[in-house]
Amino acid sequence: AQSVTQPDIHITVSEGASLELRCNYSYGATPYLFWYVQSPGQGLQLLLKYFSGDTLVQGIKGFEAEFKRSQSSFNLRKPSVHWSDAAEYFCVTMDSSYKLIFGSGTRLLVRP
Amino acid sequence: EADIYQTPRYLVIGTGKKITLECSQTMGHDKMYWYQQDPGMELHLIHYSYGVNSTEKGDLSSESTVSRIRTEHFPLTLESARPSHTSQYLCASSGGQGWGYTFGSGTRLTVV
Predict the structure, then answer these.
(1) Residue numbers in A near B108 (CB within 8 A)
(2) Which residues of chain B have pLDDT under 70?
(3) Which of A17, A46, B70, B111 has the fewest CB atoms within 10 Å, i.e. the most exposed one?
(4) Residues of chain B numbered 27-46 and touching chain A (CB < 8 Å)
């Protein structure tokens, strides 16, 4: 069965520092992969998605992610974090029945 | 702008009351979903629909029910609310496997 794993429950970075959130997927074929962000008490917002083509995907708010088949990874990156980026980040895949499969999430804390 | 709307945003209600959480989308998506999310936790699928008059139970057992009489509308009903139903309920719709989901802002339900 398809799954995604986010090994980091919490990550703390200083404002202006670079960020990388890890995600590993489990699926034989090329998966559909997404990163969503959830601010406290809010719904989820799609940052970016990958389903084929260029393995480096650009998203909103300055985020990007790289699909690496050899490592079964889809890590999210941002070169310079802003205080407003503090939120919960979910790596997500979609199964053949169009249902989303969520990772457990990584909570990002930003130090001033 | 096309979007997905959930009402109410917050609801505090007494035990035993019947409630309906509203969800509407203007994107013409056939696929709609309800997720339940406890604070700080991942999302769990409780209901989904692939079109009018189609509803299915999700991976997490729920005492709620849903209906899909119109494409744009996917309400969730609790016949008799209990404190164990206290949670955030997120509605989403999807245009297909490569498009991800669009989420509403959620309804935060508290049953006292």
Answers:
(1) 41
(2) 1-2, 97-99
(3) B70
(4) 31, 33, 40, 42-43, 45
